[in-house]
Design brief:
Radius of gyration of chain A: 15 Å
CATH class of chain A: Alpha Beta
Shape of chain A: globular
Strand order of the largest sheet of chain A: 2-3-1-4-5-6
Number of strands of chain A: 6
Largest sheet of chain A: 6 strands, mixed
Oligomer: homodimer
Helix content of chain A: 40-55%
CATH topology of chain A: Pyruvate-ferredoxin Oxidoreductase, domain 3
Number of helices of chain A: 7
């Protein structure tokens, strides 16, 4: 696919924006693509829902906003209810069943993966939930190489935290590839 | 002003993107405004320069990109050289003299404040340089209230780090108000 239109949504504190920044950087710096990543804040932000858009393309990007994502990740019921209607028909909708009960009205490939549960079982640190989600997304879509995510992490987080992040990415990759 | 068009630029690791996210959140959650904050990655990102755009408005925002900022912050010479030509004539250009030597060709109000030096003298932690920059910007422009920045920090960073961040914000405010 020449162009990926992605929306990550959830609540403040789930690391949705950080995950979006990591994904965009990885695609650009280590895979030679172009990317724009943005947050729109407004009434939704005041209510607690967070949305971050990522556009990744081989060619230059002119309009920086995602209208209809072909990939939507929703990590809370509120964000699922708000954003699932905008998904491109036939798109991929990734949720965590701990937080989201899937509706039936949306024309999309729904994938529910127990990312939070696996992170808590294996790593016991909710802070890497967002990295597990990135792993799951890459396992499902092959959007970019997992190594590119690891390289971004290596340049942005302290070395002591790399093990935990690598484990979370691997957990997600395994979940995504098996789905 | 109904609409502020802001660009933060520098190099990876200076906290430019984090500062942009904090500013946008503060404006929306604690001041009732609308905001869009974005990063464009591409050739520039591969070379190490980081740019983050923030649009803050009382009314709804339709086009999410900043074409001509009325406020530009440049924290490296490379980012200054790259982005100073796009500033709106008569706009505000904030730099740190440790990193940037100002050129003369740009129609803007140049303000050079020794933010990095003051942070290292008083706090000795370069990690809060970006918060000092936010303080300086607010001291200069009264864009939003400093308390709104502190409230965002309180919900996003561990309590142990609040003192250091508050000090950095105050250092910046004093520099900006005295300029």
């Amino acid at each position: 696919m020449d162009r990926s239109r992605i929306v990550f949504s959830g609540s403040g504190g789930q690391g949705v924006i950080t995950a979006a920044i990591i994904l965009a950087k990885a695609a650009v710096i280590y895979e030679g693509k172009n990317a724009i990543q943005s947050q729109s804040y407004g009434a939704a932000a005041r209510g607690g829902a967070t949305r971050s858009d990522i556009l990744i393309a081989d060619s230059e990007i002119h309009f920086p906003k995602v209208i209809q994502p072909n990939i939507l990740v929703s990590l809370t019921q509120e964000s699922y209810n708000t954003f699932s209607p905008i998904i491109r028909p036939g798109g991929l909708l990734l949720v965590d069943p701990r937080y989201v009960t899937i509706g039936t009205k949306v024309d999309a490939k729904h994938v529910a993966l127990p990312m939070y549960e696996r992170v808590m079982e294996e790593i016991k640190k909710p802070i890497v939930f967002n990295i597990c989600m990135l792993g799951a997304l890459i396992g499902l879509t092959k959007l970019i190489r997992p190594e590119s995510i690891l390289k971004v992490l290596e340049t942005t987080i302290p070395e002591d935290f790399m093990d935990m992040n690598k484990k979370a990415l691997d957990l997600g990759l395994n979940l995504g590839e098996a789905a």
